[in-house]
Amino acid sequence: EDPVVFAILVLLLYLVAAALAARAAVQGRELGIAREPAFYVAAGAMLAHAAWLLRALGAEGNSALDLADSVSLMGWVVAVTGLGLLTWRGFRAGAAAVLALAGLMSLGTGSGAAFREIAAPGWPIAAHILLAATASGLLAVGALLLMLMVAEDARLRARRLSGWTRWLPPRGRLPTRDGC
Questions:
Q1: CA dihedral in degrees (81, 84, 86, 89; nearest 10)?
Q2: d(Cα 177, Cα 180) in Å, to the nearest integer?
């Protein structure tokens, strides 16, 4: 019932999933997704995060989100993307970074003041909130992956291929503008 305990639990689940994904990337193992422990821990973290979000927002459909709840909703979208990255072989390091970001974004859930609306919101407002959170979450994932690619590019240009950048997928495996 204590929100601090739930915050620590969700953060720890995301960080354990990120650590398991990073370990899989370092070891270079390519297990099927059904045998990858990071996938199950990340799915559990997402379910706990979703339950926490639903409880914090209330069952009556409160659509007046404060900034912390909005960031947490974006964090859930980031976690969905991280779970998707876990299913691609060779993208475990990117999934680790994305899942760690989702854990940090989940921390603000329910921490703001509770606003109540006089009239119940309609479906257009709820759809707008969902689409805005999805777009913002995907933008956050794109920004994080761009920073990783810039760091990898700088290491390649300096001919220093050792270090954490060797765990990232090869540049030839990444999607390009011309097609996926």
A1: -130
A2: 8
Q: What is the pLDDT of residues 109-155, one digit of tens each?
A: 766 555 555 555 665 666 677 678 778 877 887 787 777 777 777 77
Tell me the pLDDT tens digit for each residue of 53-106: 887 776 445 555 667 777 888 888 889 888 888 887 777 888 888 899 889 888
Q: Are 85 and 95 in contact (CB under 8 A)?
A: yes
Axis-axis angle for helices 67-86, 3-27 (nearest 10): 30
User: Could you give phi then psi for residue 177, rounded to 5 degrees?
Assistant: -65, -30
Helices 67-86 and 37-57, axial angle in degrees (round to 10): 160
Contact 64, 117 (CB under 8 A): yes
The residue type found at 78 is V
Q: Which of 6, 153, 14, 159 is nearest to 78 (CA)?
A: 14
Residue type, 165: T
| Strand ranges inside the chain, DSSP E | none
Angle (nearest 5°) at CA 128 between 125 and 134: 145
Question: How far, in Å, are 120, 171, 175 from residue 178 at the CA level?
Answer: 45, 14, 8
Residues in a beta bridge with 176: 179
Contact 91, 85 (CB under 8 A): yes
